[in-house]
Design goal:
Layout lengths: L4 E5 L6 H13 L2 H4 L4 E5 L5 H8 L5 E4 L16 H6 L2 E6 L2 H6 L4 H13 L3 E6 L3 H5 L3 H16 L7 E4 L13 H18 L1 H6 L1 E5 L4 H8 L6 E4 L6 H8 L3
The protein binds phosphoenolpyruvate.
Organism: Polynucleobacter victoriensis
Pathway: Carbohydrate metabolism; erythritol degradation; Carbohydrate biosynthesis; gluconeogenesis; Carbohydrate degradation; glycolysis; D-glyceraldehyde 3-phosphate from glycerone phosphate: step 1/1
Protein name: Triosephosphate isomerase
Length: about 250
């Protein structure tokens, strides 16, 4: 039985005062209690990691970042290494988010190397895969996500059990459009079968999250699917009540 995993991705949002209010509201609504039975984390912008680590201390809610360098250190201006994130208390880091793939031209190989760097620093990479709207309309969703996952499997080999996967159809992110639960389940099952060819035990353990306009009103049906183990949540993680409702939805 895989525990429910709900991970918030604040993207490039927040301020010192807004973060404090948001986390205090989340804790005030009882998120700490939910963290006893579910795996919860917030992935926040780099400048706020120390502040949010402090606000989340002893809450049971883990801290995460939204990207990481594939290099351990050196002349990579503007980049942040896995050891730096780990030192600040991060347990998770998102890699391969579609906004990184799209706006920063990150390819499958780089995403795999970032996941490896995270694992080497004892963090859990949240590896995002998902097809664009055009690929979806062309019926290529499965081909695309299989290719994206294969690049990770080729590099990580036996380490996949220590990762989290997130299926995020690009056309659903921030758009209000969502696949039907059955459509999402088909992709999740396919990803798990692909993992199982590599490592059956890991496949049964790895959390595969759904992401893309996940909201309190659609979460129950999506999270009821057998291979959907939780959510990677953008917009709704910026609202304490919505985030709490998502954590209670399954
Ligand atoms: C995301 O960016 O990972 C995401 C799922 O965003 P949203 O929930 O806003 O669609």
């Amino acid at each position: 039985m895989r525990p429910l995993t709900i991970i918030g991705n604040w993207k490039m949002n927040g301020s010192l005062s807004a973060n404090q209010q948001l986390i205090q509201a989340m804790l005030g609504l009882g998120l700490t209690d939910l963290a006893k039975s579910a795996r919860l984390a917030l992935c926040v912008p780099y400048p706020y990691l120390i502040q949010v680590a402090d606000l989340l201390a002893n809450s049971g809610i883990a801290l995460g970042a939204q990207d990481v360098s594939d290099h351990p250190n050196g002349a990579y201006t503007g980049d942040v290494s896995a050891n730096m994130l780990q030192e600040l208390g991060c347990q998770y880091v998102i890699v391969g988010h579609s906004e990184r793939r799209q706006y920063h031209h990150e390819g499958d190989g780089l995403v795999a190397r970032k996941a490896k760097a995270a694992l080497q620093a004892n963090m859990t990479p949240i590896i995002c895969v998902g097809e664009t709207e055009e690929e979806h309309d062309d019926g290529k969703a499965l081909v695309v996500v299989r290719r994206q996952l294969q690049a990770v499997l080729d590099l990580l080999q036996g380490q996949v059990a220590s990762c989290v996967l997130a299926y995020e159809p690009v056309w659903a992110i921030g758009t209000g459009k969502v696949p039907t639960p059955a459509q999402a389940q088909d992709v999740h099952r396919e990803l798990r079968l692909q993992l199982a060819k590599f490592d059956a035990e890991a496949a049964s353990k790895v959390a595969i999250l759904y992401g893309g306009s996940l909201k309190p009103d659609n979460a129950k049906d999506l999270l009821a699917m057998p291979d959907i183990d939780g959510g990677l949540v953008g917009g709704a993680s910026l609202n304490a009540q919505d985030f709490l409702a998502l954590c209670q939805a399954s």
